[in-house]
Amino acid sequence: MFCPKLVFAISLDLVKKIALETEDKTIRQQEITSKLTALKARINLCKQYTLRVTSS
Fold it and tell me: So where are the chain's domains?
């Protein structure tokens, strides 16, 4: 367990370094977000098609 005094003694640079995501993770997250956006658009397209087919 961490002692509060030790935690407060940690430099801001070290905190930023610990909290920082790697560039690979950031790129992967952007790729996944892009794919998710595309999938949501396709789901909406399928829903529109289903509404047209069932209402005919």
Answer: 22-56
